[in-house]
Amino acid sequence: MPYTLAMFFLWGLGMALIGVVIGWLLRSLRGGGRAALRPSDADETEVDRLRRRVADMESIVAERDRLRMELADVRGSSAGALGFSAAPLDLDAARATLGREVEPDDLTVVVGIGPKIVELCAGIGVTTWRQLADTEPSMLKTMLDDGGSQYKTHDPGSWPRQAALLADGRWAEYQALVDELGADR
Asked: pTM for this structure?
């Protein structure tokens, strides 16, 4: 038994020695492990280029944020100048006046707009009542014409006016307009 243990130990030591020699040879053939990790001049140039791009992007993001704040200020001041508040919409009053639940910026509340037309509107960048209110009826008509013959019967003439009333939270005026249009909503 001692002979077997000694042979097992010698074979294990021999295998470990062979593994170390093979590893050393492979590493020297690759040019050394550290040399492969050293960045080249091309890598440093690329890193510098990417750093400049990040710095440019940071200034662009800062400018975008500044413009968004300015736009929010303009929208807030123009809302007051036009005689309505930019306060959150009173959806309870909408439910009481219209007789149904209303979700903010749900374009399907506008008479004549269904889910498919909402998709068409999103295609031209109109996703809110305010955006719809600011869109020309001719642009909406063109959108419908481009959507296909199934939309030819729709008349978007009153959509911006309906959307403006909804965006401003003027529920009673919206309901009066809907009644005037003869719609069943």
From this structure: 0.53
